[in-house]
Amino acid sequence: MNSTETMTEKRQTPVDKPKIAAFCCYHSAYEAADAAGAGHIDIPDGIRLVRVPCTGRVDILHMLGAIEKGYDGVLVLGCHEENCKFLRGNILARKRVEYANRLLAETGAGENIVEFHGVAANQPHRFAHIVRSMYHRLKAGGAEPA
């Protein structure tokens, strides 16, 4: 069985303990994640935070590589539109996420298992909600965003 068949099979069934890679902008979402932890806001286990200087630096190969390494979902969490410190990094990231989802759907590896969301540094509850939403959706075996 090749890796595409394995990934396809995994997406069609519920995952007991989903693993999610979360690429977080250092200036926004990573700060929100830190605040969520400091505020003891409930976040499921199995989330791997990857701090990046800007989500514009997250390449499609990083997203697909996370899926290939066994992550059930990928979040790219950056600045809200028009608030990127690097001007257009979040827009580039959103386009790359859309492309990654098209590639994954075409290969049968899953649909809508990569998401982009804007999260400000002062939004720890939004960060937690996004993570919990993807976690529970993957746990239930659904591919469509909640």
Give your account of this protein's structure.
The chain has one domain (3-7, 18-139): Rossmann fold (3-Layer(aba) Sandwich), CATH 3.40.50. The chain is 45% helix and 16% strand. It has five helices and four strands, in the order αβαβαβαβα. Helix 2 crosses helix 5. The radius of gyration is 14 Å and the shape is globular.
Order of strands across the main sheet: 2-1-3-4
By CATH reckoning, the class would read: Alpha Beta
Fill in the CATH topology. Rossmann fold
Work out the helicity level: 40-55%
Task: Please render the helix and strand layout as text.
Elements: H1 3-12, E1 20-25, H2 29-38, E2 47-52, H3 60-68, E3 73-78, H4 89-107, E4 114-118, H5 124-140
Core attributes:
alpha/beta, globular, 4 strands, Rossmann fold, 45% helix, 146 residues
Short description:
This protein has a single domain (3-7, 18-139), classed as Rossmann fold (3-Layer(aba) Sandwich), CATH 3.40.50. 45% of the residues lie in helices and 16% in strands.
